[in-house]
Amino acid sequence: MTKQKIGWQAQENGLYHLSGALERDTVPAFWQQRHEWMPQDSAVQLDLAAVGRIDSAGMVMLLHVYQQLSLNGAELKILNVPEQLVTLLRLSHVESMLAACIE
């Protein structure tokens, strides 16, 4: 069985594509490399269409991305949010934190 990885692809105009599995086995190593991929744009659109699986570690990572971007004065919009993430946010009672970001 091949271990899934997280893919991060920057497009133009602040559009980024996240892919793979956002889970406890993949998030820690990806997060440690955030200085290489963290957006510096003032407006960021994060497309999750290619995210195959997300668990609570992936949800927390996205909350931290939102927090980091906010601290830098950037605006975040999350596109193509998987239903699995919506459910995790709701069950964790943190949906309000990302509600304004989700399109």
Summarize it:
This protein has helices at residues 27-32, 34-37, 56-71, 83-91, 95-98; strands at 6-10, 15-22, 43-54, 75-79. With 103 residues, it is an alpha/beta fold.
Describe this protein's structure:
- Pfam families: STAS_2 (PF13466).
- Residues 15-103 form the STAS domain.
- This is STAS domain-containing protein.
- With 103 residues, the protein is α/β, with parallel strands linked by helices.
- The chain contains 5 helices and 4 strands, in the order ββααβαβαα.
- The longest helix is centred in the middle third of the chain and has 16 residues, at 56-71.
- The N and C termini lie far apart (34 Å).
- Poorly predicted runs are none
Distance between the termini: 34 Å
Main pleated sheet: 4 strands, mixed
The arrangement of helices and strands along the chain is EEHHEHEHH
| Strand proportion | 25-35%
Shape: globular
- Number of alpha- plus pi-helical segments: 5
How many beta-strand segments?
4
Please tell me how large the radius of gyration is: 13 Å
Sequence of strands across the biggest β-sheet: 1-2-3-4
Average of pLDDT: 93
- Derived structural class: alpha/beta
